[in-house]
Design brief:
Mean pLDDT: 87
Largest sheet: 3 strands, antiparallel
Distance between the termini: 21 Å
Length: 139
């Protein structure tokens, strides 16, 4: 499992911007799972920073980014500017790997909720009541 950030480590109750909820040491951003051309899972990511590259909705899937931006939430996809470049162009999103990781995380009794984009929740057939949409105001 690869995580991107968890909390601002220097000042209690101060969020790690732009993550306003990362202020208590109990939140973490987990990376999606990718696979190489042979179908093997990898910990490589498509961007240098780990941020800014998303698994976009397929043509008939719900597009939350478009909805949020139409509602005036310009910041919704802002991390696309934080990639620091794209790498590992041979890897692709692993639906099975990501679904298995989500299932393992949600089996933990200490997990209260998990945020994931609505199109991925649908695509991965995730139905756990802990899975939620974080809202358009989030990044």
């Amino acid at each position: 499992m690869v995580y991107l950030d968890a909390n601002f480590p220097f000042i209690d109750k101060f969020p790690l911007l732009p993550h306003l909820s990362h202020n208590d040491g109990k939140k973490i951003d987990v990376s999606l799972i990718y696979e190489n051309p042979n179908g093997q899972l990898t910990n490589r990511k498509p961007s240098v920073s780990g941020y800014g590259v998303y698994e976009s909705p397929k043509p008939k899937e719900y597009n939350q980014t478009t909805v949020c931006k139409k509602e005036g939430y310009w910041q919704y996809d802002f991390p696309k500017y934080l990639t620091l470049g794209k790498i590992n162009k041979d890897i692709q999103f692993s639906e099975n790997g990501t679904r298995n990781l989500v299932d393992l995380i949600l089996k933990q009794h200490t997990i209260g909720k998990m945020f994931i984009e609505p199109h991925l929740k649908t695509r991965l057939h995730l139905a756990n009541e802990k899975i939620r949409f974080h809202g358009c105001q989030a990044v």
